[in-house]
């Protein structure tokens, strides 16, 4: 399970600047998708080889009405879901009463907290930081988020203090982990029941906290699966704590932990930004992706072709993912999801040889040469695999830094087609070897 770090603090102290500093260092798996807006508040980060989720709680406005109203349920939920809190304060402004109220809440929450004394640039460190020691809440780290100063030192300590990540060490198993994700009300619970209900399902109970999704182990056609149920359908009744049914953090963790993500959307509402955000997260996480447009039963037939066209237009950036038009309610087409899920998993795990990849590269280059750069042609010489799950193809040549995006896409499409890869991101990297 990816650890969750929440950024908390008054407005304008530098939370989103810090957020950008922290998430920038991740390996963005696919950075060049046009038309994809990303959720500002949740990001997956990778620092010092450690993956985690960062949440910028943003909303602690802390105006005169006091912290309780200011700390909207969103922010409180984010703190509850976090493993660790970075409490960001403004060293120049000094300790304010809102800071003290936030600190009070954090103390009550019992969350491990680091105080980040931001905007330390141009002020005397010792003098500026002194008042924050009073909070007696946790270690204090000076930063200048705008320049990234102090961020590495801070994050080294932060990541060191988190428990070891077991999922990284987990060896590969044959058990295919499927996460069903989507906005509230798109039909996740209904689909989870469908996916399980058709078969004799052997469900094992995994202990989990209310923050976690439910992991359901089962077999289908004698193949082992785990369904990661973010909707909490199968949550045991005796869990009395009220949890919000939809949680972005839960969704992100499920995505990170899955092999293949079934992203469910609502045909009667069309594709909305939140659907695209979720898609972006699945792509960034490098997971297999299957798209399902639910409630297809609720559409008039002329509306159906309109929706299909619209999807084709807007979802070009994920054209490698299968799209299914389903009715979870009636079970229509639900069985076909498994075909795509298994294919995405096979594609993600595929092992490719240098010979095979180099041959495909040579063919692609002979059909369509890379462009000239300053009168000199880019040469692409050979390709080998840089990893799988998701597959990475490393291409060696000269002037590779000048390979244009459209040519990279052409190569990606060619590799996909020839290797018959479906439903998995494919990452292409270039190395210049003159
Ligand atoms: P948020 O509201 O807490 O998310 O704060 P922002 O990240 O939006 O930052 C608010 C303002 O403070 C912006 O103008 C930032 O450029 C500025 N800022 C952020 N970090 C620093 C810093 O370390 N030093 C200085 N001088 N300005 C900063
Ligand atoms: P969740 O919040 O994503 O778990 O969504 P639910 O599974 O609770 O479904 C939300 C609502 O949509 C419920 O009223 C379901 O009965 C309804 N629903 C789910 N799937 C379908 C479907 O395929 N067709 C129609 N017409 N309604 C559906």
Describe this structure in words.
By secondary structure, the protein is an alpha/beta fold. The chain has 14 helices and 17 strands. Residues 25-40 and 235-244 have low confidence and may be disordered. Residues 182, 184-190, 231, 294-295, 297-298, 327-329 line the site of one guanosine-5'-diphosphate. Residues 9, 11-17, 118-119, 121, 144-146 line the site of one guanosine-5'-diphosphate (GDP).
How are the strands of the biggest sheet laid out side by side? Answer: 2-3-1-4-5-6
Query: Which assembly state applies to the chains in this document?
Result: single chain
- Rg measurement, Å: 24 Å
Average pLDDT, rounded to a whole number, is 83
Q: What are the low-pLDDT stretches, counting only 5+ consecutive residues below 50?
A: 25-40, 235-244
Distance between the termini: 42 Å
Distinct ligands, ions and cofactors found in the model? guanosine-5'-diphosphate
Structural class: alpha/beta
Largest sheet report: 6 strands, mixed
Helix content: 25-40%
Strand percentage, roughly?
15-25%
Number of strands: 17
Q: Tell me the overall shape.
A: globular
Please work out how many helical segments DSSP would assign. Answer: 14
Concise overview:
The protein is of the alpha/beta class. 35% of the residues lie in helices and 23% in strands.
SSE layout and pairings?
Elements: E1 4-9, H1 15-24, E2 42-47, E3 50-56, H2 67-70, H3 73-81, E4 84-90, H4 97-109, E5 112-118, H5 125-133, E6 140-142, H6 151-161, H7 166-169, E7 176-182, H8 188-197, E8 214-220, E9 223-229, H9 248-257, E10 260-266, H10 273-285, E11 288-294, H11 301-314, E12 322-325, H12 334-349, H13 354-367, E13 372-373, E14 376-377, E15 379-387, E16 392-398, H14 405-419, E17 427-432
Parallel strand pairs: 1-3, 1-4, 4-5, 5-6, 7-9, 7-10, 10-11, 11-12, 16-17
Antiparallel strand pairs: 2-3, 8-9, 13-14, 15-16
One guanosine-5'-diphosphate binds next to helix 1.
């Amino acid at each position: 399970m990816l650890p969750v770090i929440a950024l908390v603090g008054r407005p304008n102290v530098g939370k989103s600047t810090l957020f950008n500093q922290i998430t920038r260092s991740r390996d963005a798996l696919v950075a060049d998708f046009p038309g994809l807006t990303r959720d500002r508040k949740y990001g997956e980060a990778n620092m010092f080889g450690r993956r985690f989720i960062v949440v910028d709680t943003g909303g602690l406005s802390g105006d005169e009405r006091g912290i309780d109203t200011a700390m909207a349920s969103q922010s409180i939920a984010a703190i509850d879901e976090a493993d660790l809190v970075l409490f960001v304060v403004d060293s120049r402004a000094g300790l304010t009463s809102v800071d003290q109220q936030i600190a009070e809440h954090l103390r009550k929450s019992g969350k491990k907290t680091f105080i980040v004394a931001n905007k330390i640039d141009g002020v005397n460190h010792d003098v500026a930081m002194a008042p924050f020691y009073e909070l007696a809440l946790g270690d204090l780290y000076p930063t200048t988020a705008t320049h990234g100063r102090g961020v590495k030192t801070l994050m080294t300590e932060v990541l060191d203090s988190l428990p070891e990540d077991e999922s990284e060490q987990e060896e590969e198993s044959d058990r295919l982990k499927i996460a069903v994700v989507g906005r509230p009300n798109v039909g996740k619970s209904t689909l989870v029941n469908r996916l399980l209900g058709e078969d004799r399902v052997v469900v094992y109970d995994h202990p989990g906290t209310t923050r976690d999704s439910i992991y359901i182990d089962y077999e289908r056609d004698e193949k082992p699966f785990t369904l990661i149920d973010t909707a909490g359908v199968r949550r045991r009744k005796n869990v009395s704590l009220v949890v919000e049914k939809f949680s972005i953090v839960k969704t992100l963790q499920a995505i990170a932990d899955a092999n293949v993500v079934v992203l469910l959307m609502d045909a009667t509402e069309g594709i909305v930004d939140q659907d695209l955000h979720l898609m972006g997260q699945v792509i960034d996480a490098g997971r297999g992706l299957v798209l399902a447009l639910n409630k297809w039963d609720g559409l008039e037939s002329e509306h159906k072709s309109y929706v299909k066209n619209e999807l084709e237009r807007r979802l070009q950036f994920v054209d490698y993912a299968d799209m299914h038009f389903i009715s979870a309610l009636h079970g229509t087409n639900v069985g076909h999801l498994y075909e795509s899920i298994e294919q995405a998993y096979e594609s993600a795990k595929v092992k490719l040889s240098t010979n095979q990849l180099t041959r495909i590269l040579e063919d692609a280059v002979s059909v369509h040469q890379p462009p000239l750069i300053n009168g000199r042609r880019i040469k692409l010489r050979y390709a080998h695999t840089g990893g799988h799950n998701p597959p990475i193809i490393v291409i060696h040549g000269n002037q590779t830094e000048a390979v244009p995006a459209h040519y990279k896409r052409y190569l990606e499409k060619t590799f996909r087609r020839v290797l018959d890869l479906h439903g998995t991101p494919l990452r292409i990297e270039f190395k210049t070897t003159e």
